[in-house]
Amino acid sequence: MNVLDDYMVDPDLSLLDKTRIQAQVLVPVLRALRAELGQEKADAIVRDSLRDWSKQLFAAVGDSVEGSPRRKWAAMQTALTEITEREVTVEMRRHDKEALEFDVTHCRFAEFFRALGEPELGALLICATDFDIVASGGSDVSLTRDQTLMQGAPCCTFRYAFAPRT
């Protein structure tokens, strides 16, 4: 059993397929809101709603994992890696007790949302969740990501830092 099974709804469904289903609903709603309210206001409503949803969801997942904040983060990060590994290509840069650093050089999620013309929606549904998972690690884990494929960069730069264990 994966700690993200409830998030996935159906563990047999890939995260990319789940994301495609979400987009089938969200994109028409987002575009209708833009037509009615204007792009800036509509995008703000959707952004705030999806950010609140993601923060609450991953906080609840973290609460369901026993152990230290770093253990909570590690459990969710491992689970996320398991459900995304066939959708992304990763180049490991560093992995030790102080840091986990890697670049994602190919991402099917970014390809999908860029083809839809909605990379910002993809960033909200996929990219921003990494920071919500990091939040479960409290001050034990931090993430810096200067660029993403979703934003048109050549890679996503994941730079996790770990606080010293006491």
List the helices and strands and how they pair.
Blueprint: H1 5-8, H2 15-37, H3 39-63, H4 69-84, E1 88-95, E2 99-107, H5 108-116, H6 119-127, H7 129-135, E3 141-144, E4 156-162
Antiparallel strand pairs: 1-2, 2-4, 3-4
* Domain unit count: 1
Return Rg in Å.
16 Å
Main pleated-sheet profile: 4 strands, antiparallel
Taken as a percent bin, the fraction of beta residues is: 15-25%
Helical fraction equals 55-70%
Mean pLDDT: 92
Count every helix, treating DSSP H or I runs of 4 or more residues as helices: 7
Secondary-structure element string: HHHHEEHHHEE
Q: Architecture, according to CATH?
A: 2-Layer Sandwich
Structural class: alpha+beta
The strand line-up of the biggest sheet is: 1-2-4-3
User: In one word, what is the shape?
Assistant: globular
Termini separation (Å)?
Answer: 30 Å
Oligomer: single chain
Number of strands: 4
Low-pLDDT sequence parts: none
Regarding CATH, which class? Alpha Beta
What is CATH's topology name?
Muramoyl-pentapeptide Carboxypeptidase, domain 2
